[in-house]
Structures are given as C-alpha cells and as structure tokens.
Amino acid sequence: MAITVRSASAAVFRPVRTRNAFEETVERLLQAIRLGVAGPGERLPAERDLAARLGVSRVTLREAIRAVADAGYVESRRGRYGGTFVVEELPESPRRDPSGVDLEDVLTMRRVLECGAAETAAGRALTPDERQHLMVALTEVDAVGTGSAEQYRRRDSRLHLAIAEVTAAPSLTSAVADVRTRVNELLDAIPLLATNIEHSNVQHRAIVAAILSGDPAAAHAAMDEHVEGTAALLRAFL
Residues of the chain with pLDDT > 70: what percent? Predict the structure, then answer.
C-alpha cells in the first residue's frame, strides 16, 4: 500500500543539507517510519521521486535505504508491484537516556506548535478530503489498544501530523514532525499507561470535534489540555 498522507510525507521527506546528505537521508527515512508516515507494510515513494524530494542523488538514497534495510526497517521487493516497503514487524526502537534532554524546552515547543496548529486548523474552511483525513487518523488511533506502545505512538503521531497538515502550512507540519520525534523519544523512556491512553483518546476526539466544528478557541483549549497531560507524565517520570 502506498503512502496516502501526502503533506505529512512532504514534511518529513524534505530536502536535506548536502554536507551530511547520507546521514540526514537515513534520519528522514527513520523519522517517517517511526512517526507512522510510512507504516508497517507500506511502500516508500518511488526512488526517483524520493531522491528529488530529499534533494539527494539516487546513489546516496540507495546507500541510505540499504543502511535502513540492514537495520531491519525496510525490505526490497521485486516485480510489477515491487519497491521498498516498511517491514511488518519493526525492530524495537533503542531507548535513549533522557537525562541530557532539556525537557521544558521540548514541552514548550510542542505546546506552542500543536496548540497553534489546532487553532489554525479550526479557523480554516476544511475541504471534504481534509475532514475525512482527520476522521480516518482519529479512528486509527482509537482502534489501537495498549498492547503495543510503538504502534500507539505511530498512530498518535499520525493524528497530530494530520492536524498540522490541514492547516495548509507545510513549514508548520515539518516543525510538528520534528518535535513529535523528540517527544516520542521521551515517551519511550516511560511506561505506557492504559488509563492515560483512554484519557488521551477522549481528548483526541474533543480536539478533532472542535476543529471540524470550526471553533478555534475550543480547539486550542482541547489541545492545550491534551499536551499538558502528557507533559505532566513526562515531568513525573523523568
């Protein structure tokens, strides 16, 4: 199945800096996978298209894909429907030591970006496709139980990226993708709590409802409550 989240894909697969083209290409590929922009079983964009979007040569892209494949995240398939696919069972993400992270910096950036995104999205006249995109992302995260922390993180991230996408501001979507990567690394260091997941899903529904009803103030307030709940858990554990 090909990637269908076009603007989120564009936000992650954006041009890299030429000095570290290989390393940053690997980073972009892994970010797309870990945020759920390219989920398990999904196909990455065609090599020619992806190299152009990243602003790298096809040789550099192939080297990066090979490195990501060697790490167990993607596989190549031949034939008419071939290409590079994300594996069905992803490797467990390495746990990083959060002690050196400026927690308040990350949380402040997330609050500013995501509350602003929700408010902006609610202030737009969304197209039917945009409204459906939000509802699909919401349904997908609602359907995930508490058995797989990584699967929940990917679906959760996909919803938050969907909210940023419907602001029609690509730079904002890129910034949200970056801060979500940092937040997820912190969340990976704490337990996944079933009650918190239930609470988060209720908040997700409130955020999306406010956006779809065109209420910027309510969308901002609902997102603020949501991100503050996550911030409280991170402060408590870390």
Answer: 92
